[in-house]
């Protein structure tokens, strides 16, 4: 039997209060260097590559990660990792494409 030991907060992720979906919310310690270690046996790394096709700089404040669709693996250090994600930001558009890269 699997029992969660921690349940993240529920939060709304969407364009407005009518369009969106209920998600779990969790703060992250996002790093720009993939060589940093997790240092916790219960944490998981999800590598995300961001491709900015806009001419402007973009501040990423939050990302909805489709964790239910990701595989869970261990790396050579015995740490938990998932499939990588590719996030494409388009020019003059509010739309962002997120794709899962097979492991």
Give structural notes.
The chain is mainly beta and 103 residues long. It has one domain (9-101). Helices cover 0% and strands 36% of the residues. It is built from no helices and 8 strands. The chain has strands at residues 9-14, 20-25, 44-45, 48-52, 72-74, 80-82, 84-89, 96-101. A 3-stranded mixed beta sheet has the order 3-6-5, with no helix packed on it. The mean pLDDT is 78.
Summary, kept brief:
The protein is mostly beta strands and 103 residues long. The protein contains no helices and eight strands.
Q: What strand line-up does the widest sheet have? A: 3-6-5
| Low-confidence residue ranges | none
Number of H- or I-type helical stretches: 0
Query: H/E order of the elements?
Result: EEEEEEEE
Averaged pLDDT: 78
Number of domains: 1
Percentage of residues in DSSP E strands: 35-45%
What portion of residues is helical?
under 10%
Distance between the termini: 27 Å
**Rg over C-alpha atoms, rounded to the nearest angstrom:** 15 Å
Major beta-sheet overview:
3 strands, mixed
Number of strands: 8
Structural class: mainly beta
């Amino acid at each position: 039997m699997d029992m969660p030991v921690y349940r993240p907060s529920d939060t709304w992720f969407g364009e407005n209060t009518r369009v969106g979906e209920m998600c779990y919310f969790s703060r992250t310690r996002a790093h720009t260097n993939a060589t940093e270690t997790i240092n916790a046996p219960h944490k998981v790394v999800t590598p995300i590559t961001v491709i900015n096709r806009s001419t402007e700089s973009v501040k990423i404040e939050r990302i909805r990660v489709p964790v239910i669709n990701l595989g869970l693996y261990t790396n050579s250090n015995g740490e938990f990792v998932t499939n990588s994600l590719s996030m494409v930001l388009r020019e003059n558009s509010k739309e962002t494409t997120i794709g899962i890269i097979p492991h």
